[in-house]
Structure formats: C-alpha cells, structure tokens
C-alpha cells in the first residue's frame, strides 16, 4: 500500500526563495487554467481537459509576462494541472463543488514533485532546480529499500517547512486478540481505561490559553495589510502549532492496544 511519511526540514536561504517562487508559480498556473476552463464553458460550452491546459502552459511560458514560469521546475506546474483536472472530474461526478481560485493569503502553500522532479539517494533528497539536498530532520526511517514515488513540499501558517514522501509500504497484520478495553474520556484525566489505568490530561490548551488570547488581541489591534499585522498573525499561528501533536503517552497506548471499545 502507499503510505506518506512527513518530516520537517530546514531550507537554506536560496532554497526558501526557490520554493516560495515555486509556490507562487503553482498558484498562478492553477488560476490561469481554471480561468481558461471556466471561460471556455461559459462562452462556448466547451470542456477543456488536462492535455489542453498543458499545451496552454507551454504557450504561457513563451510570453514575456509569464516567462518567469521557466525559472521553476515544470513538474509541480504539470501536477497542479492534474489536480485541477481531478477537481473538475469530482465536480462533474457530483462529489464536490466547483473548483475555486487559489488565494495568496488563504490557500495552502505547497508543490508536488513526481519522480522526474527529484532525486532520492543514500538518504538525501534533492529537488529539481536545486544544487543542494534538503536538510531533513529524519524523525523516523523510511521502509527498507523504499523509493518515494512523489514528494510534496509545503509551508504552514507558522512558517514551518515540511516534506511528505509517498512510498510503498507493507503494514504487518496485528495479532488477533480477544481482549477488549473500555475507554472513558474525562476532564481530570484525559482517558480512563477499564483496566484501571489512567492517562493524565496534559492540558496544553489551558497552558497556552493566555498566550493565545494576548496574541489574538495584538493581532486585532494591527492595521490590515501592515507588516506588524503579518508579524502578529505569525505569532498566533505559532501558538496554534504548539498544540498540534497528540500526547506521546496516548499515541503509544493506542498503538499497543489490540481491540478497543469506546464507552464514552
């Protein structure tokens, strides 16, 4: 089965500039293609497919106004056209709404590379158009002999950089057990088990509540569009980012349980 392994990485100044430029080009190409497909349907009732938008991309690169698209890898640009095709397929099948334009402020900053757009060798990952490999914090190993099929690079609202590698993985079947454990969620203790074991409530939200309220008040006072508002928004995002992970004790307990009945 395919499994994604996500890691944090720390780009050099040159890599950060290149990736930010790539994110912008991905967003630009997506919006241009969406606009072209929408216009074709509204004016001529014509459905434009991926192959047509790929040809458009080639033409856009030859214009003076969009020549900067040649400065980044073509792989993420082609991938965003494929994602747009998938969005239209889901729309026409009734599984999703009409695709929306990507916003510079609100949309996720990411770029996807297929095998032709990166090199993974000896535990190092180098993206196209980059001379140096990414400095990745390998918090867990990839499966033995794994070769990523796609790589997705992203940056969250707090400015942290992440890379996700999609690999083939074999998950061994868990041993069959007849044991069952009841779980009760509470306030004094995060979880109380029917075995008598209790998982403490780390109360991360209570600890950061005052910091978050202060940061949000500071954000509300700043003038919209100002540099100080951007800094205040980043502080709020970083506080939110501190509470993203599930407590380690809970994760390890869930992993070692064979069968669980929720009795909340």
Provide structural commentary.
With 264 residues, the protein is of the alpha+beta class. Helix 1 (13-44) packs parallel to helix 3. Residues 246-264 have low confidence and may be disordered. It has helices at 13-44, 50-61, 74-92, 204-221, 227-242, 248-256, and strands spanning 2-9, 109-114, 118-121, 124-127, 136-137, 150-155, 161-168, 181-185, 189-193, 198-200, 260-262. It starts with a strand and ends with a strand. 14% of the residues are buried.
In short:
The protein is of the alpha+beta class and 264 residues long.
Summary tags:
single chain; 264 residues; alpha+beta; five-stranded antiparallel β-sheet; four-stranded mixed β-sheet; 6 helices
Task: Assign a percent range to the helix content.
Answer: 40-55%
Largest sheet: 5 strands, antiparallel
Low-confidence regions? 246-264
* Percentage of residues in DSSP E strands: 15-25%
The chain-level mean pLDDT equals: 86
Backbone structural class:
alpha+beta
Q: How far apart lie the N and C ends? A: 33 Å
- Gross morphology is globular
Secondary structure tally: strands: 11
Q: SSE string, helix = H, strand = E?
A: EHHHEEEEEEEEEHHHE
Number of distinct helices: 6
Query: Strand order across the biggest sheet?
Result: 2-6-7-1-5
Radius of gyration: 23 Å
Which SSEs are present, and which pair or pack?
Blueprint: E1 2-9, H1 13-44, H2 50-61, H3 74-92, E2 109-114, E3 118-121, E4 124-127, E5 136-137, E6 150-155, E7 161-168, E8 181-185, E9 189-193, E10 198-200, H4 204-221, H5 227-242, H6 248-256, E11 260-262
Parallel strand pairs: 8-11
Antiparallel strand pairs: 1-5, 1-7, 2-6, 3-4, 6-7, 8-9, 9-10
Helix pairs in contact: 1-3, 2-3, 4-5
